[in-house]
Amino acid sequence: MKLYFLNEFLGDIRNINVDGMWINAEITPSKNIDKFNDFFLAIVDEENDFEETNYNEEWLDDSNWYIIDDENRRKGIYIPAVYPDREINWRWR
């Protein structure tokens, strides 16, 4: 599987596990993910409130995030949580 934002490839996803509605996996990031690092850190930081006004509106639009599965099908996801240890969690839309 592959993670995309709009038409930008952000990384390969592997070792997928399903836990109820959530999917957990590992991501091998592409260099394109670098600009999202602060955004993802803010999303997963449970100690602080996430301030939407600090980020690009396109990044906050769930319809811009998707995964290409192993059969090359595009599947929409809600904004993923990408952790510093390169764990990724998401839900299908």
Question: Could you characterize the architecture of this molecule?
Answer:
- The protein has 93 residues and is mostly beta strands.
- It has one domain.
- The chain contains one helix and seven strands.
- The protein has a seven-stranded antiparallel β-sheet.
- It is globular, with a radius of gyration of 13 Å.
- The mean pLDDT is 96.
Give, in order, the helices and strands. Answer: EEEHEEEE
Mean pLDDT across every amino acid position: 96
Contiguous low-pLDDT stretches (5 residues minimum) are none
Strand order of the largest sheet: 5-4-1-2-3-7-6
Overall shape: globular
The major sheet is characterized as: 7 strands, antiparallel
Number of helices: 1
